[in-house]
Structures are given as structure tokens and as C-alpha cells.
Design goal:
Layout: H1 6-25, H2 31-45, E1 51-58, E2 61-69, E3 75-77, H3 81-89, E4 93-95, E5 113-121, E6 124-133, H4 141-157
Antiparallel strand pairs: 1-2, 1-6, 2-3, 4-5, 5-6
Helix pairs in contact: 1-2, 1-4
The structure holds methionine sulfoxide.
């Protein structure tokens, strides 16, 4: 990945970011505050993003949460688009080219690739972390592992239901 010097450098970046997020979230129980700071830290730390943020599960709909980037669609039914697929299947979606993903929702025309990680706590889907990039195939398996680790840290610090 350009902008990140090799696998070790990328892993270090995710480790550093996880530590930063722990520092930001520890001692604060407000979910909006915590998700807002997590989105800001991710957007500021990871290169080549044009959107980073959260959608929260409300029934069988995802509702826009704290994010960084351009304004986005506010409600996504489970099963629609990349975020809805991640929510419905409770699985990370790594999409190298959003234009060939069935039902992709184009909130920002600049987005070319996307990574969506479900947030699950005690078997309850809380929402998803969504990252968009203006670069094709921006995300690889290491990004997936790194972002899943970030989500684990974030979920463990979310003290009240989101
Ligand atoms: N592209 C997403 C919609 C959310 S925006 O990217 C912020 C999707 O297809 O689910």
C-alpha cells in the first residue's frame, strides 16, 4: 500500500492507532463522544481515506453516526449496499471496487473501495465501522485485521447501548 512502508509499518500504524483510541475512550462512557473521537482518530491516522465513521443499528436499519468526510445517507436497511451487507451477514466486507458491488450506495462519488466491519457485543449488532477510499483496492487483509482490532477496542469501551 502506498503511503505505508511495508507490512510491519502498517501493523505498527494500527497498533499505534489502537493505543490512541484506548487513550481517547478510557474514562468516557458517552457513546456519541467515543464514536466521534474514534472516527476522527481513524480518519486522521489512516492514509487515503475520504470517509470514516459509524452507522448504528436501529432495528433492522443502520442510522448514520459520528463520522469524518462528506455528508452521507442517513439510513441504510440491513442487506443494502456494503454497510447493509456487513450488518446482515455480521461479516467484514472488503470491497476492492465498489462499482462492481451489487447495490453499492454511492454517498460520495469519489469512493472507489470500501471496508466495513460489523460491531458486535454479546452477540448483539451495535452497528458498523465504514471506511471509504478514493483509491481502488486501498484495503487489504492487513487493513481488515487492523480495523477488526480497532472495532474490538471501540466496542469494549462502549459502555452503554449504541
Ligand atoms: N457506500 C456505503 C454507504 C455508506 S457511505 O459510503 C458513507 C454502502 O454501500 O453501504
Amino acid at each position: 500500500m502506498s503511503g505505508i512502508s511495508g507490512d510491519a509499518g502498517k501493523r505498527q500504524r494500527y497498533d499505534d492507532l489502537a493505543g490512541q483510541i484506548v487513550g481517547l475512550l478510557t474514562g468516557e462512557a458517552d457513546v456519541t463522544a467515543n464514536l466521534a473521537n474514534a472516527a476522527a482518530a481513524i480518519y486522521a491516522s489512516l492514509p487515503l481515506l475520504n470517509w470514516a465513521g459509524f452507522y448504528r443499528a436501529r432495528g433492522s436499519t443502520l442510522v448514520l453516526g459520528p463520522f469524518q468526510g462528506k455528508p452521507a445517507c442517513t439510513r441504510i436497511p440491513f442487506g443494502r449496499g456494503v454497510c447493509g451487507a456487513a450488518a446482515k451477514q455480521r461479516q467484514t466486507m472488503l470491497v476492492p471496487d465498489v462499482h462492481v458491488f451489487p447495490g453499492h450506495i454511492a454517498c460520495d462519488a469519489a469512493s472507489q473501495s470500501e471496508l466495513v466491519v460489523p460491531m458486535i457485543h454479546n452477540d448483539i449488532l451495535l452497528g458498523v465501522l465504514d471506511l471509504d477510499s478514493p483509491v481502488l483496492a486501498r484495503f487489504d487483509a492487513q487493513d481488515q485485521a487492523g480495523c477488526e482490532a480497532l472495532v474490538a477496542v471501540i466496542v469494549s469501551h462502549v459502555a452503554e447501548p449504541v
